[in-house]
Amino acid sequence: MAIVELRFSALPEHVRTARLVASAVARKAGVDEQLLDEVRLAVGEACSRAVALHQRGGVDTPVRVELEESEKRFSIEVGDAVPSQAAVAAGDGGAAAEEDEDTGEMGLAVISGLVDDVEIVGGDGGGTIRMSWPLVGAPVR
Amino acid sequence: MAIVELRFSALPEHVRTARLVASAVARKAGVDEQLLDEVRLAVGEACSRAVALHQRGGVDTPVRVELEESEKRFSIEVGDAVPSQAAVAAGDGGAAAEEDEDTGEMGLAVISGLVDDVEIVGGDGGGTIRMSWPLVGAPVR
Amino acid sequence: MDLSLSTRTVGDRTVVEVGGEIDVYTAPKLRECLVELVNEGNYHLVVDMEGVDFLDSTGLGVLVGGLKRVRAHEGSLRLVCNQERILKIFRITGLTKVFPIHASVDEAASATD
Amino acid sequence: MDLSLSTRTVGDRTVVEVGGEIDVYTAPKLRECLVELVNEGNYHLVVDMEGVDFLDSTGLGVLVGGLKRVRAHEGSLRLVCNQERILKIFRITGLTKVFPIHASVDEAASATD
Ligand SMILES: Nc1ncnc2c1ncn2[C@@H]1O[C@H](COP(=O)(O)OP(=O)(O)O)[C@@H](O)[C@H]1O
Ligand SMILES: Nc1ncnc2c1ncn2[C@@H]1O[C@H](COP(=O)(O)OP(=O)(O)O)[C@@H](O)[C@H]1O
């Protein structure tokens, strides 16, 4: 079971909230202080991407962030509700449509470059980005 | 629709996360800076109470916090999953059982003393504390 | 943001300086500290709340618990607090009538009423 | 935590000092600022990132957009950044090869390569 779950309307302003929650919960769970910047950035990227997909796809269900803690690892799953076919279309179209950026691709590049354990899955119900980080054995402090 | 929704396992450590989220989202929505302390405290009290009810009731579903924004008000709903009969029993028993506090009552006293608009409803599916605060008309600063 | 506790002696009083957030998660540490002090025979306590950023009803409950404990030994528990937002919480819950609240540790340490 | 922008002239360069968080929410403000500068005829920009606490790919996209714009006028866009955690993001995305990155505004303002 997720220890903490956040759902938010697909608006850019809520991405910051997701970063805030992810880094607070990760710190509490015992993710190394040095890795928290990485957690914050990766969650931000995954959520920004989900927000963009929802907005382009006209999907009005919320973006979902699940934070999970096992004995050894802290996992975050960011889920959008855009079926993978539509996501690919929206991603391409979107990048081309945006004036001068293709940040969707760049966001994924940042995540993959940053996080050692990451898995990106698409599906009919929407896509999911799963990431995890090691927990420090002893309680940090 | 809630603009942001948080669900967390009924553990004391997550109450702080709920406070963090509530005050960040309330600030962004345009709740007066002076009221944010009140929002933080009220949400903390409501969540602490829900955590205690879940723990005493042996309920392992998450505690739910919904943040909503209308044109004029910002609302927060904190929901537990303990049916109202059981909640009353757990509340009484719990207060008596605790060594020297009856913080359940005190938590409600703080909320009612603090928040102008508050509504506490019990039900078979669990109880809900609904609170709301005015939004500053113009975007702050 | 965490809870910090430090204890020192001022005359015949034991001063507990509290910093950070006292909430449902951290309050047990404060309770432990007060229980220990009383068990060790310190019955005149001054809790300095000037460094407290957040206080909720769980924290209030622990303070009330501490008060009951020292009273069982004819002791006292005084608070030091000048922060309006913290004082407000004591006021709302009617606890300003239960705790002597002082403006400084010196004042609290010399009070005898 | 919000985004702050301030602009000044150093020699023939326009320096944009950025502070706070550049993300999907605030990046549009930075884009607007850069677009406006170019529209007003400022083609040699220095973006000072020393006050930036957070930068994501949306922010990178805006910087790349700015670079394309000034290049259309044979201009330049140089960055000032000494923060390892920000530099890391440029490195991961290969953008250290795209942007000249300098250690100080002075260095950036006098660079001509
Ligand atoms: N809900 C909370 N309210 C106040 N402080 C908290 C909360 N959660 C964590 N903290 C503080 O954050 C610090 C870091 O947490 P942690 O490393 O788990 O400490 P601890 O080992 O004491 O639990 C702790 O010192 C704790 O006091
Ligand atoms: N997701 C976010 N990322 C970075 N900064 C943010 C975010 N959300 C809000 N802020 C900052 O917090 C400040 C307060 O928000 P707000 O009062 O709504 O400002 P604005 O009117 O500029 O949107 C803003 O200056 C904004 O830059």
Summarize this, please?
The complex is a heterotetramer, with two copies of chain A (141 residues) and two copies of chain C (113 residues). Helices cover 45% and strands 22% of the residues of chain A.
Q: Give the helix level of chain C as a range of percent.
A: 25-40%
CATH architect. name of chain A: 2-Layer Sandwich
Order of helices and strands of chain A: EHHEEHHEE
Rg over C-alpha atoms of chain C, rounded to the nearest angstrom = 13 Å
Quick one: biggest sheet of chain A? 5 strands, antiparallel
Structure description:
Chains A, B: This is Anti-sigma regulatory factor. Chains A, B: One of its GO terms (molecular function) is protein serine/threonine kinase activity. Chains A, B: Residues 8-133 form the Histidine kinase/HSP90-like ATPase domain. The complex is a heterotetramer, with two copies of chain A (141 residues) and two copies of chain C (113 residues). With 141 residues, chain A is α+β, with helices and mostly antiparallel strands. Chain A contains four helices and five strands. Chain A has a five-stranded antiparallel β-sheet, covered by helices on one side. In chain A, a hairpin with a 3-residue loop joins β2 and β3 (73-79). Chain C has one domain (8-107): STAS domain (Transcription Regulator spoIIAA, 2-Layer Sandwich). Helix content of chain C is 38%, strand content 32%. Chain C has four helices and five strands, in the order ββαβαβαβα. Chain C has helices at residues 27-39, 57-71, 84-92, 105-110, and strands spanning 4-10, 13-22, 44-55, 76-80, 101-102. The mean pLDDT of chain C is 96. At the A-D interface, α1, α2 and α4 of A face α2 and α3 of D. β1 (4-8) of chain A pairs antiparallel with β1 (4-8) of chain B, so a sheet runs across the interface. The complex binds adenosine-5'-diphosphate (ADP) (2 copies). One adenosine-5'-diphosphate sits between chains C (1-3, 21, 23, 25-26) and A (28, 139-141).
